[in-house]
Amino acid sequence: MKNYFSTRWGIIAVGALIGLLAALLQKMGNPPNMGICVACFERDIAGALGLHRAEVVQYMRPEIMGFVLGSLVAALLARDFRPRTGSAPVIRFTLGFFAMIGALIFLGCPWRALLRLAGGDWNAIFGLLGLAGGVFIGTLFLRGGYNLGPAKKAPKFVGFAMPLIMAGLLVLAFMNPPMAGEGKSGVLFYSLKGPGAMYAPLFIALAIGLLVGGLAQRSRFCTMGALRDLILFKQMHLFSGLIALVAVAFLANLAFGQFKPGFEGQPVAHSVGIWNFMGMVLAGLAFALAGGCPGRQLFLSGEGDGDAAIFVVGMIVGAAFAHNFAMASSPAGIGANGITGLIIGLVVCLGIGFFGMRKQA
Amino acid sequence: MTEILDERGLSCPQPVLDTLKALPSVQGGKLSVLVDTEAARENVARAAESKGWQLASVEEKDGEYTLHLVKNA
């Protein structure tokens, strides 16, 4: 069966649609330049569950559940659901953890970096350069023989674990809806101000999440892969999807009056260039060593990849630590322990890259 | 005897890296690559085609794919 979505025009169409839907989600209530941000939304989920208590970033973001469940449905329909796991799970957890530490120093995943750029936030340029730098370091390890070893086929129920966890979180969201003026509803925490208090209607966010999840699963859309393939193979395939995302999000932002160019006063962002850059160096390296950007890890976990699922869990735990340990940035600048977290993360990820290199046969 | 590259279980970009590494030294202009995800199948085929090779055929068995690559004349 021909997979139209994995052709050049397929990936461009998917990138363009993600750009449009992200701008639309922002228009319908998501935070500025954050129509979709996998790192931010996982961080908000950690807050909603009380894993950290940063009061401005607590919301059970249905887009994330939509991504995983949409990917599951697409994979099942296309007979591409392949339960597998066992490729160095603890390393993948660690990479997810430090990917989040880096992303929260910059304040966004690669998707949000692109959306910030498309919204006129020029600080994103430092983040994207850092991302490319981190991915470049990752390709050096890949050239040196780095790999985390093969995964093994797993029983079906193992592949369903992450989608079921996401379905459970969705049930929690339905059972504990936000109440006006209340910071808590049942077991879930809600933000009364800040980005966590800004969200598109639940069903619209979920529907868009499902659609993006399905399309991204079929097309293998990946922002880290786009840079990696360009650097490693001089291949433009995934990169063309990334360009389409930025171009369409930019046009949609213009149309919606959401384009505000400049460095200072950008929403949910700080303007310390060096840490915007370095945060994404760490994140980019961790993504490259794990084989996918945060979005791609969600889609992979939807199609049954248990190792990608562990990376996702690592990111959510990393978000909790980032806020509990004052490593996350805020519009006021970087956190008190941000640089410490960054250095530890770089040492750990460089170590993983180094020790993960195997002698080539 | 066609050379066979076993890339089962390996996640991207490993199958592509190994295929591109193997292609220049393949004897007889034929290489078979064994993969077990659809993404790897697409990526290996795309990479080989960019290097002047062609995907002659694909065999599927129990969710595993054997890609038969041949060098363009």
User: What is the terminal-to-terminal distance of chain B?
Assistant: 19 Å
Q: Strand order, main sheet of chain B: write it out.
A: 1-2-4-3
Quickly give the structural class of chain A.
mainly alpha
Largest interface: A-B, 28 and 21 residues
Q: Which class of chain B in CATH terms? A: Alpha Beta
What is the CATH fold-level name of chain B?
Translation Initiation Factor IF3
Q: Major sheet of chain B, described briefly?
A: 4 strands, mixed
List the secondary-structure elements of chain A in sequence, H or E: HHHEHHHEHEEHHHHHHH
- What's the count of strands of chain A? 4
What is the helix content of chain B?
25-40%
Domain UPF0033 (chain B): 5-29
Organism (chain B): Desulfobotulus mexicanus
InterPro entries (chain B): TusA-like, TusA-like_sf
Protein name (chain B): Preprotein translocase subunit TatB
Compact summary:
The complex is a heterodimer of chains A (361) and B (73). Chain A is mostly helical and 361 residues long.
How would you characterize this protein structure?
The complex is a heterodimer of chains A (361) and B (73). Helix content of chain A is 63%, strand content 2%. Chain A has helices at residues 8-27, 38-48, 62-77, 89-106, 110-118, 123-143, 156-175, 202-219, 223-233, 237-256, 273-290, 294-302, 306-324, 338-355; strands at residues 84-85, 152-153, 184-185, 188-189. In chain A, the strands form 2 sheets. A two-stranded antiparallel ribbon of chain A has the order 1-2. In chain A, strands 3-4 form a two-stranded antiparallel sheet. In chain A, α8 packs across α12 and α9 crosses α10. With 73 residues, chain B is α+β, with helices and mostly antiparallel strands. Chain B has one domain (3-71): Translation Initiation Factor IF3 (2-Layer Sandwich), CATH 3.30.110. Chain B has 2 helices and 4 strands; from the N terminus they run βαβαββ. Chain B has a 4-stranded mixed β-sheet, covered by helices on one side. In chain B, α1 (14-22) runs parallel beside α2. The longest helix of chain B is centred in the middle third of the chain and has 13 residues, at 38-50. Chain B is globular, with a radius of gyration of 11 Å. The relative contact order of chain B is 0.25. The mean pLDDT of chain B is 92. The interface between A and B is medium-sized, with 28 and 21 residues.
